Amino acid sequence: MLESLEKLLILQDRDHHLRRVREELAQLEPEREALRQRLQSAQAALEQVRQRLRQLENERRQLELEVASKQQLIDRYTHQQMQTRKNEEYQALSLEIERLKAAIRQIEDRELDLMEQAELGQKEMATVQDTLRHTENWVREQQTLLQQREQNLRLEYQKLSAERHQLANDLEPSLRQRYERLLKSRGGNVVVGIAHGVCGGCHMRLPPQVVVDCRSDQEIVTCPNCGRILYYKREMDMEVVD
Fold first, then answer.
1. How many CA atoms lie within 13 A of 133 on its CB side?
2. Distances from the Cα of 43 to the Cαs of 39, 49, 129, 132, in angstroms?
3. What is the pTM of this model?
């Protein structure tokens, strides 16, 4: 194989690795965002339980105030009963007292229900807090791993970039320019092999003479269809059309 082709293949290999490193670096921020979202979800779950417990406590206190208010009315009506001498007024006060006592019993039943809900909520909060602690620890570990991974990738990128720069400078200027132009227009695969008389880049059948020229390994040969640089290796199973 021509030395220039070997250099191009090595350069292309470094470009492939550089592209892979860039893609991995680009994925780091979405991964970090996913970790932040996971932590925020765990925090939001805890806050939701806390909010529900606060609502239960506020409702319970409101009910206590209602009971106290109704009890004050009962005390007042009981005192009025002791002062009145009219049977009708006494009976009316008795009915009102019984109505208030019935209302208090209903409120107390609701208070018991709220207390049961609060007890369940406290158990749920303990579970959610435990989940949050585990999530925080896991997220910190993953963030550390991501940071280490980013450092390694940036070091690898610097090394590959330096190698790439040296390899590109070792090429003839015209060949380097051709390669760079193809890299920009065609993407990662600029130097491609041929098999069965077909270009490894565009997968179009090549003219017989192009296949022969490539196999002779005397000069740089390009695909007449896509312009990519062609190469041949003995292990390639070529089909040359006579």
1. 6
2. 6, 10, 9, 7
3. 0.73
Distance CA 36, CA 30 (A): 10
55-107 residue pLDDT tens: 999 999 999 999 999 999 999 999 999 998 899 999 999 999 999 999 999 99
- 3-171: what fold? Helix Hairpins (1.10.287)
Asked if residue 206 lies in contact with residue 221, where contact means CB atoms within 8 angstroms, the answer is no
- Spell out the domain ranges in the chain: 3-171, 174-231
Q: How far is CA 14 from CA 7, 87, 170, 175, in A?
A: 11, 107, 14, 17
| pLDDT at residue 2, as a whole number | 85
pLDDT tens digits along 119-139 = 999 999 999 999 999 999 999
Q: Could you tell me if 151 and 37 are in contact, meaning their C-beta atoms sit under 8 angstroms apart?
A: no
Judge whether residue 240 has pLDDT over 70. no
